[in-house]
Amino acid sequence: MSRVRLAQGPWRAEIDPALGGNITSLEWNGQAVLQPIEAADDPYLYGAPLLLPANRTRCGRFHFDGQDYALPVNEPAAPAHLHGRVHDAPFELLRADGACAELQLNAGAEIYPFPFRLELCYRLTEDGLTADYAITNTGDRAMPLTFGLHTTFVAPEFFSVPIDREQERDARNLPTGIYRPLDAQQQAFADGCDPRGMRISGYFASAGTIARIGRFRYAAEGGFDHWVLYNGGGNRGYLCVEPQCGAVDGLNLPGGRRVLAPGEALKLRTRLERM
């Protein structure tokens, strides 16, 4: 299936239904806002790949409602399950009209141990891009989940993200279960700073819904309660500002996950606008 091209005012976007419904390109006045797929060197460093479950799940295992569940270990060094299987799953294109695209994934056991439907709606306006996400539990039992967006921006000269506590990590980048206050450098991420040349990597509880990425405002609404920040060491030309619903390894942490009853839907929204 070919990519879907959207345009409105100064904005241009490309959506790839066959590649997890990802935003493979987003431009404002010809300027790349998100890292395009052609510039990426791993499957998560382009556009805004969808993560379910988000980030790492320790040893690819979790316990829920009296049962043990296993996910594929695709990060052997940790070991962990990393980023889920939605990011490259083929979505069905329901509608595209030039400025809006609607897509849908009906997921079964090949994606996650609990069946669900994931609906996407991307809409360009003169102001920017709005993305709506609806995750519905289509099974007959409760469904635990975390969800995130690996949003990879072209590295800006300035950024700020509303964070207030860090998820402590061990040497394998797995959370210890402890939250700790921000250090001086992390506080600068919240207050605002130039990220270029600075190594950025961390998991954080959210203190708000609106991040600033250069001259763009990135809002994450409806239940996103964590942010993940990453820039590959600081010299690779990108900055990942990733809103998450649930914590890293949230399937194994008390209060770190959402639980949907049968038929229940979780609705989330992001907005990316020029300031």
Mean pLDDT score, rounded?
95
pLDDT < 50 stretches: none
Total beta strands:
26
- Main sheet summary: 8 strands, antiparallel
Question: What level of helicity do the residues show?
Answer: under 10%
Number of helices: 1
Rg is 18 Å
Beta-strand residue percentage: over 45%
Account of the protein in words:
By secondary structure, the protein is an all-beta fold. The chain has one helix and 26 strands. The strands form six sheets. Strands 5, 15, 16, 18, 19, 20, 23 and 24 form an eight-stranded antiparallel β-sheet that branches. Strands 10-11-12-13-26-22-21-17 form an eight-stranded antiparallel β-sheet. The longest helix has 8 residues. It is globular and about 55 Å long.
SSE arrangement:
Layout lengths: L3 E5 L2 E6 L5 E7 L2 E2 L17 E2 L4 E3 L2 E4 L2 E4 L9 E3 L9 E5 L3 E8 L8 E9 L3 E10 L5 E3 L1 E3 L2 E3 L4 E2 L2 E7 L5 E7 L2 H8 L9 E6 L3 E4 L2 E6 L4 E5 L7 E8 L12 E3 L4 E10 L1
Antiparallel strand pairs: 1-2, 2-3, 3-4, 5-15, 6-9, 7-8, 10-11, 11-12, 12-13, 13-26, 14-25, 15-24, 16-24, 17-21, 18-19, 18-20, 20-23, 21-22, 22-26, 23-24
